[in-house]
Structure formats: structure tokens, C-alpha cells
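Key result, reporting period 2: structure in, sequence out.
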């Protein structure tokens, strides 16, 4: 089963697989990543992240896995909100993780948050070993999305919670044209100013448009083995929080 987003590559002329391209892309943009996240979302990403953290908090976990952790924003937010929790964050990009480790240390959370390089399609953890899993803006970058979800379900304990934050496309008659203008023209232009990788911020809107959304994403998560999955659109549909349980 191939998902359309799997065919969207950061560097279309590159013959390597998507995972390798994504790793190199994020290594390249790591110094500008946090600034671009705030700028692209006008700071609203903090609101989206808080809602995901509340969903994790509701299941009272002790061990949380943050997939595609990037520079560690979600891992840090979860650890701050739940003092009893230990968080492991994994990501393909060592460039992103190195920035995240500095942020973890500055936050005084080195004893409870560990960030390490790892493959989301082959998670180095036993079956049924974590209470909750978070993924923020990462699943559209997976080379094999269904396999990625199946791995998450494998390591999640029975009754555990999966929270997926992913950018999505507003469908309103007024919001869609504005969103398309912003993502197709303004974001790539801003990306060219602050990042040396001019392709990365053109890949972004292409991958958002191609990733499954709403009921389609929920169906994919259930196919991977979740017993339930619900979509919660936010900010006119520009981002969606998917909450699933094993």
C-alpha cells in the first residue's frame, strides 16, 4: 500500500531513498529550523503543541516516546508538563538532535529527556514498552507511512495513546486560497532567505498536500493496528491532531 506522500521527495533528482534525503535535508536546515517553525505558523505551533501535551497528560504515562523529535520541542514540553515522565526522542537527523540536546540541557531536563538518532521505521525498543507516543510534523516525511505506524503500535502498550500532530490543508472557501498563497509562495521565499537549502521549504507544502488527512489518516492508523483513531482539526484545518489508542 503506497501513500501519495511517500512519492514526494525533498530532492526529486536524487536517486537515494526518501529516508536518506529527509535526514540530509533536516541536517541542512537544522540551524534555521526553530526560527522557521515560529515564523511559518506565526507562533500558533505552541498552541497546537500544548493541545497534544494535554492529550498525553490525560493518559497518565510514565514512559513517552517522541518520534521525529527534531530539536526536541515536544519532548521538552511533555517532560515539563508531566514531572513523573521519562521521555525518549528519536530522529534521523543528528543535526537536529544536537540542537535538541542543548535545549534539553538548558531546560534542566537531562535526567528525564534523552534524544538519540534512530529510525522511526525500525524503532529500537521492545514490544509494548511505552505508555504514549507523540509525533509532531513528522509522519509526512516517512518513506513508508503504514510501516511507521505499525512500528509505533508495536512498541505502544495495550491501552496506550498515540498523538500525531500533522500539518493539513484548510478546505474553506476563504481560507484555502490564502493558505495556498502562503504555503506555495511566502514560505518558500522566507526559507530561501534564512536557509541554505532552497528546496526544503518548497518540499514542505508539497508534502502537506500529499499526506493523508482527516478520515483517511485515521483509517491508515487503524489499519496499522490501532483500535481507535480520531481527528481533531485546529486553526481552520491548518493542523490536525490525531489521537489513537492501542
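The corresponding designed sequence is given below.
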Amino acid at each position: 500500500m503506497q501513500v501519495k506522500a511517500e512519492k514526494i521527495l525533498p530532492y526529486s533528482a536524487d536517486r537515494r531513498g526518501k529516508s536518506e534525503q529527509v535526514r540530509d535535508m533536516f541536517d541542512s536546515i537544522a540551524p534555521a529550523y526553530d526560527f522557521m517553525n515560529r515564523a511559518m505558523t506565526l507562533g500558533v505551533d505552541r498552541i497546537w503543541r500544548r493541545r497534544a501535551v494535554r492529550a498525553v497528560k490525560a493518559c497518565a504515562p510514565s514512559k513517552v516516546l517522541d518520534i521525529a523529535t527534531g530539536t526536541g520541542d515536544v519532548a521538552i514540553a511533555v517532560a515539563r508538563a508531566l514531572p513523573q515522565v521519562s521521555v525518549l526522542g528519536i530522529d534521523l537527523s543528528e543535526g537536529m538532535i544536537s540542537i535538541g540536546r542543548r535545549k534539553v540541557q538548558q531546560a534542566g531536563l537531562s535526567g528525564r529527556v534523552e534524544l538519540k538518532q534512530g529510525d522511526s521505521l525500525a524503532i529500537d525498543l521492545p514490544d509494548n514498552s511505552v505508555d504514549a507516543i507523540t509525533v509532531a510534523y513528522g509522519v509526512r516525511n516517512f518513506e513508508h507511512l503504514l510501516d511507521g505506524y505499525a512500528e509505533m503500535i508495536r512498541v505502544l502498550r495495550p491501552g496506550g495513546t498515540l498523538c500525531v500532530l500533522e500539518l493539513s490543508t484548510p478546505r474553506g472557501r476563504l481560507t484555502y486560497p490564502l493558505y495556498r498563497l502562503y504555503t506555495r509562495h511566502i514560505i518558500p521565499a522566507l526559507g530561501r532567505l534564512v536557509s541554505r537549502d532552497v528546496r526544503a521549504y518548497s518540499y514542505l507544502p508539497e508534502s502537506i498536500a500529499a499526506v493523508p488527512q482527516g478520515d483517511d489518516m485515521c483509517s491508515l492508523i487503524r489499519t496499522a493496528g490501532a483500535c481507535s483513531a480520531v481527528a481533531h482539526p485546529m486553526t481552520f484545518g491548518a493542523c490536525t491532531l490525531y489521537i489513537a489508542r492501542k
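The beta strands are 63-67, 86-91, 113-117, 130-136, 156-167, 228-234, 239-245. Residues 54 and 81 are 8 Å apart (CA to CA). This case is discussed further under Risks and Mitigation.
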